[in-house]
Amino acid sequence: MLKNFSNYDKVKLVQSICLVVTVLTVTLNFDLLLLLVGLAVSWLFYCFGLAITLHKYASHRTFEPKNKLIKYFLLWTGTVITMGTSLEFAAGHRTHHKFSDTPDDPYNLDGGLWHRIKLFFYWFPTWKINPLIIRDLIRDKDQQFFSNHYWKILLPYPIILLLIDPILFGYFYAMPVTYVLLGMGYVTVIAHLPSLQKNGETPFDTNDLSWNNRFIGWVLAGEGYHNTHHAFPGSYTYEKVPGDIDLSAKIIKLLGKIPD
Known about the structure:
- This protein is mostly helical.
- It has one domain.
- It is built from 14 helices and two strands; from the N terminus they run ααβααααααααααααβ.
- The protein has a two-stranded antiparallel sheet with strand order 1-2.
- Helix 1 packs across helix 10, helix 2 packs across helix 14 and helix 3 runs parallel beside helix 7.
- It is globular.
- The two termini are about 30 Å apart.
């Protein structure tokens, strides 16, 4: 089970360390090539770990991996991005959709500037989340294994980088984790801000404050089409408006079995 989100504080600590290490790495050990490669790795972290695995697969079950090898790879990417276990993430995200932009939404923006800043960095009230909302995932033995052994699965990658060269740790682990965290902050806060909604695109009536941005759609592997996602939460693709490109959906077509 979720053990009352006891993992949450540990995840937030590692994310905070990654934020600091990213800033120090870029400012004190700037290397253009490493920066460009690090940004590419960061995009892949977000695409596979967040958009495909934690969001479209675990949270919304929009597809099933074609085989066990692909499933294990996706669950590994969803672990190494350091956003909490797939069970924890899905529980929070499903609750958000159930109560979007209402007082019961764990990502609700009401509460002042400091509250919004905390939400941007993914500090949210976990007490609003009922673990029973992920009963289907709890029955999945693979999801349970990756959840129960979260840190054992996550830590080898950053430790190996750290042992090879701390600079590689900064560019290829800390920076990607920061990219994912800030990207999640965008869809959690920025894409729901009432003051910015008029500047975005809202092609669908979703009864909430979500809006689209095509540029962010590229930067976050399709996750910038937030209004489209809230209109079609069960869809693996957000290409519902002519001209919108959802890169994570194109990868899902290769890796997953999509329900008819």
